[in-house]
Design brief:
With 534 residues, the chain is mostly helical. It is built from 23 helices and no strands.
């Protein structure tokens, strides 16, 4: 009896303890949620402030869109205007929302496409409606159905033409939409519907063009110009950062989690991902009128070519950055032998890239000393430093073969000892290095298939590489070869920049044109990216 009372009491006490623990957990959760809710207004305000601070033009564009929508809303707010336009005012509102883009070039491209598509669709729909109304009822229905099929198929097929897809794809889509909307209303007054739709869309496009071209205009050409300058400066910063990190005394641990937060990674990734941005900005810039003395016959497609060679140059920066994360690293004592010439070469490369950025920014030709003796001297110093350490890069072939065979013998002997412990059959002994190597090759397949007991064992390839006499210099040899490759690819960048200066009639270089450039933060490039997506 006492036992039952004791058990029941224990259960009761245990239940109370569990309930108290549950209450404490709920209190902690509620406290955490309350803290998050309390911090949310500040977090939201910081995010809003950061977006506007990164690019103040975003605030201007937002205000312009709000003002444009206010102006177009007068069509249904003001009674006299509503009596004239009627319910078709919604097409003007839709036009403002769809057409008004961040830059003037994008707005012109979409606005003219929309206007031209609407006009042609209305004209063709009116012509088809006029022919259909002059015929009988049965022939009218068949004729309209056949016309819709043929025009829809033809317009869709035209969209696959590269030139149409690049410049007028949006206009073709609007043409199809408008044509089918008007033709589907053939039982009503087709001419009135076409007129009202065209007028309201024209009003919307006019408001968009007014806001884009005359109220704090933002030009795609200037964005493309500054974007190209930014890419040159970022590549210069990435090169110096990679070389400095490679010869840094402190060990830098880079993992998959923090690799995306690395400024160097963000920098060259922005350059490699810039192809679509360059092409869209160049397309929109081709639609823009001349708005300053710098934009007469400006070769926007040359900027696309410069972007292409910069991406080719950026691939070597990616490989250079990868040398910091390789599995086999050159000892720091060996790196120190080549530190000064490598840092000097990287500094000269960065200096030349910054000079190219300056020449584009100031719209002047490059300095005649762009490939000065300093770059060639730095390259020669690196070559001399490598030649002064021949034992690091050249080893005895007999010693290399002996090292590999001895390694294979040790590896095979280790597996024999393991098999002896498990009661497996053993070979007699390892008499020579060559017999051990053959034994290891014959047993490799059976060992890999063994599943009873999985033992972690080092990779033979990695051990063989590290056992080579010159293996400690191999990673540095790859690093140095990439620096030399950058010097070679720099010539291609200089050629394209000089071609841009020739076509765009840049002013001649004078000594007073030099401007000290501070390499901007890597995030400056990303300010341009979200603003131009269709």
């Amino acid at each position: 009896m006492s036992t039952k009372v004791h058990v029941g009491t224990g259960m009761e006490v245990g239940g109370e303890g569990e309930s108290e623990g549950g209450k404490e957990k709920w209190k902690k959760r509620i406290h955490v949620y309350a803290e998050k809710i309390k911090k949310f207004p500040r977090f939201l305000w910081e995010r809003i402030w950061k977006v506007g601070r990164d690019d103040p033009r975003r605030v201007i564009h937002s205000l312009k869109v709000g003002l444009a929508l206010t102006l177009v809303s007068l069509l249904y707010l003001v009674e006299p205007l509503f009596k004239v336009v009627g319910s078709y005012a919604i097409w003007a509102v839709m036009t403002v929302v769809v057409v008004l883009e961040f830059t003037a070039g994008a707005t012109l491209c979409k606005g003219l496409n929309r206007g031209l598509g609407t006009f042609l669709a209305g004209l063709l729909a009116f012509l088809i409606g006029f022919i259909a109304n002059k015929s009988g009822k049965i022939f009218r229905d068949v004729f309209i159905g056949a016309a819709v099929f043929l025009i829809g198929a033809a317009a869709t097929y035209i969209r696959f033409f590269p030139y149409i897809k690049k410049n007028y794809d949006y206009g073709v889509v609007i043409f199809l939409l408008t044509f089918n909307l008007i033709v589907s209303s053939y039982r009503h007054e087709v001419l009135k519907i076409a007129n009202e739709r065209f007028y309201t869309i024209a009003i919307g496009c006019a408001i968009c063009l007014f806001m884009s071209l005359l109220v704090f205009p933002i030009w795609s050409g200037e964005d493309l110009h500054n974007f190209t300058v930014g890419k040159l400066e970022v590549l210069a910063k990435c090169i110096e950062a990679c070389v400095n990190d490679y010869f840094n005394d402190a060990e830098v641990q880079v993992t998959k989690d923090n690799a995306s937060e690395d400024p160097t990674y963000k920098g060259y990734k922005a350059v490699l991902d810039s192809k679509s941005i360059d092409e869209s900005l160049a397309l929109y810039a081709s639609w823009e009128p001349r708005h300053s003395k710098h934009c007469y016959k400006f070769p926007w497609q040359q900027y696309v070519k410069i972007g292409a060679v910069l991406r080719q140059f950026g691939y070597t920066v990616v490989a250079l950055h990868g040398c910091l994360q390789t599995e086999i690293q050159t000892p720091r004592s060996v790196r120190a032998l080549f530190k000064d010439p490598c840092i000097r070469l990287a500094r000269e490369l960065s200096k030349d890239l910054l000079e190219l950025a300056n020449s584009i920014r100031n719209r002047r030709h490059c300095s005649p000393e762009i490939l000065s003796d300093h770059l060639h001297e730095a390259l020669q110093d690196l070559n001399t430093a490598i030649k002064s350490q021949p034992r690091l890069f050249l080893g005895s072939k007999s010693n290399q073969a002996t090292n590999v065979l001895a390694l294979a013998a040790a590896h095979a002997a280790g597996h024999q000892r393991q098999q002896r412990k498990d009661g497996a059959a053993l070979l007699s002994s390892v008499k020579t290095d060559s017999s051990a190597l053959r034994e290891w090759k014959s047993k490799r397949t059976s060992i890999e298939k063994e599943n009873e007991r999985k033992v972690l064992r080092p990779q033979l390839s990695k051990i063989a590489i590290t056992s080579l006499e010159f293996s400690e210099a191999l990673p540095f040899a790859a690093f140095a070869s990439l620096l030399v490759e950058m010097v070679a690819r720099l010539d291609n960048v200089i050629v394209e920049v000089e071609e841009l200066g020739r076509i765009a009639c840049f002013k001649e270089y004078t000594g007073g044109d030099d401007v000290n450039v501070t390499v901007p933060a890597v995030d400056v490039i990303h300010n341009q990216l979200p603003s131009h997506a269709d």
